Amino acid sequence: MTDGPVIVMQPKPPTTPASGVGDSAPVNKINVPDKTLPPAPKRNVEAALTAAAIASILIKTSRDQYHATGKPCACPDDVKRNGRACGARSAYSRPGGAAPICYPHDVTTAMIDAYRQRVMSR
Questions:
Q1: All residues at 6 or more sequence positions from 86 whose CB lies less than 8 Å from its CB, including other chains
Q2: Where are the alpha helices (DSSP H) in 27-122?
Q3: Cβ proximity of 85 and 78 under 8 Å
Q4: I need a surface site. Which of 44, 65, 73, 76 has the fewest CB within 10 A?
Q5: Could you give the CA distance from residue 76 to residue 90 in angstroms, rounded to a whole number?
Q6: Other CB atoms closer than 10 Å to residue 63's CB: what's the count?
């Protein structure tokens, strides 16, 4: 046996940070039963893309295909190897030859529909 008083420590109830300035009263938590939500329906993300998103994909693909040939100037806002803008020397600005898609207004609704058909057929 021990001589002297026995001290029993009881845990304090948890408190949350005060919501107001100078308000230090503990806030009671509300217990909400866990409800399992039904799984979200799976859908093809690419099929749900907007026309603007598809246009962006088509522009990037077109530029990448042109740049893969080793030439730096697909579009007027591209940069030459020396660091200057391509401008009128770009393939987009020159008649004949390569015709990369550089701007959203170059993308037609037929191109967007064809892209959607390709994605859906996968």
A1: 72, 73, 74, 75, 76, 77, 78, 79, 80
A2: 51-67, 109-120
A3: yes
A4: 44
A5: 5
A6: 17
pLDDT of residue 25: 56
Residues of the chain with pLDDT under 50: 46-47
Could you tell me which of 55, 62, 57 has the C-alpha nearest to residue 90?
Answer: 62
Q: Which two tokens stand for residue 16?
A: 């949350």
Please report the pLDDT score of residue 85 as a whole number: 94
What per-residue confidence (pLDDT) applies to 47? Answer: 46
Q: CA triplet 89, 72, 85: central angle to 5 degrees?
A: 50
Count of CB atoms within 10 A of residue 73's CB?
24
CA distance 51 to 70: 30
Please check whether residue 74 is in contact with residue 92, taking contact to mean a CB–CB distance below 8 angstroms. yes
Please, where are the H alpha helices in 11-108?
51-67
User: What pLDDT score does 122 carry?
Assistant: 79
